[in-house]
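Revision sheet: structure tokens.
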Amino acid sequence: MQLVTRSSISDLPTEIALLILEEAARPTFSQCDKYSDRNPYSSALALCRVSRKFRHTVLPYMLDTILLPQSRNVRAFVNALRIQKKYTNDLSFDYASVVRKIWIGEHGGNLAENPLRNAYRAPERELFLSLLAPVLLAAPSLALDWTSLILLSDCLEHICKSRPDMPLASEYSPPPWATRSLTLSGTSARAPWWPFTTTTTQGLTAFLASLCHLTYLTFNMDRTKVLAIQGLPEDTIILPQSVASTPWAFLKGLQTYSIAHPHIRHIRHPCDLVAFMETEMDLHVDLLTLSPSLMKGSFIPVEIDAFTTGPGEEC
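Predicted:
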């Protein structure tokens, strides 16, 4: 029987070892298992427990994309930031320097109904925002549920008020945020943008003006079903209802606007209509990237020149 020689990662060339750690540390967001059954960060977390050197090597890949589905995840993340502030040794790590994308899910940033918006706990709220805001606004790409949009406005207000002398935008002084792409999903409220359009804080309107890419990953299924029987062409692009409330006048730097476009089969028979209205369906959905100048009305003609994003691609 031939003996198998086992090698440890320390026996490998440094470049190979780093590539292995990078591959193992990247979160598995495309996994088949539900996130509740298998944490996409599980491999990276296990590697962080090996040693301090492993931790510092793995953290940049682990923190590249932050997934915070619920408010408890947001609080846990802020608690991690609080712990980092206490470290003065080799465990200290600057999260803001490596975070590239942050996604906060439904009610993940809904702080309006909790003690953080209670006047009697203002110091706790200020501490919360002082920890979260620098990291959230350091991410070039943000993806939020509509219910979490108010958390973004809270962070912007905190940054602007804590740095009153800092220019918000100029040729020689960039604004105190790096976000250029904003993605919104879920069901929007009647006036979801009100924190930005009714504020007296200049930073919030300056933030909208600095955005380059806006994406809506949402559409109203009931409205979509009704439109399917109105004799529209099968490939008509239906704009989300939230388009009507989008503050286009504030989005002065916007270059592209992307929407989720479901493919709806044409209804030709009353029986098909009943099945269409009463059944839950999986629809093929494209991500279309359009020019903001086309954002008028509820429909876009099929003949427009739109860029279609395929599965796994970024717009």
